[in-house]
Amino acid sequence: VYVVLNSFLHDKDLEELPEFLNLLSELEVDAVIVSDLGVIETIKKHSNLVIHLSTQASCLNIESAKLWQKMGVTRIVLGREVTIKEAAEIKKVTGLEIEMFVHGSMCMSFSGNCVISNYTQGRDSNRGGCAHSCRFEYSIDFNNSNEESKKAYFMSSKDLEGIRLLPEFIEAKIDSLKVEGRNKSHHYAGTISKVYSEALRFYQQHGHFLSNDLLSWEEELKKVSHRDYTTGSLAQYAGIDSIYNE
Q1: pTM for this model (two decimals)
Q2: S-S: 99 plus which of 42, 166, 176, 213, CB 3.0-4.6 Å?
Q3: Alpha carbon distance 239, 2 (integer Å)
Q4: Quick one: which H or E segment has residue 3?
Q5: How far is CA 29 from CA 49, 86, 182, in A?
């Protein structure tokens, strides 16, 4: 069990954190997922909890990973902007455990570092209150051009789906695959986890994915609520075709 502590905290929040850390220590959770340097220092001062770096810290390169490693982080959940190939190199050079997103909703900003919903609805996206304002339809007004005004979902990303890239994850020796499931139903979380678990077990037993099961797994992933799917930046950096602009 990992506990998410990846909000960016203010001093008042930090004053209350040690008591919560004591509770987590008593419960013997496996790790806490953190993005704030002050939170990391507080954890190290008041507990022996294992620290994983949240994707909200937007770790995208080797030097950043080395710095977080010096801070006491043992696993990094890389930003969604990193390719599998880049992730493999980060793991090879640092020796850190690496976790990557394989499925779920995507953020149009750098992995959660967004304040759109703060301004549109007074909800802090970096403290667990994201209102998904980027998913809405907006009017684009081209005042100084010949283009007509139009409505568009120009900030909304397609959903991530990496089932066909599992061999690359395995070859890169990625330690853990992460499914985005915030505010999702039990049906969603259960279905997605089941499909990827079955696929990974199949590979473990057979050493390949040459099976008609791949098509059935993809059909199962289509049955849950989702936008159009994209592989994001897993194979190569995401381009304009990753935008969900119906």
Answers
A1: 0.90
A2: 176
A3: 32
A4: strand 2-5
A5: 8, 30, 20
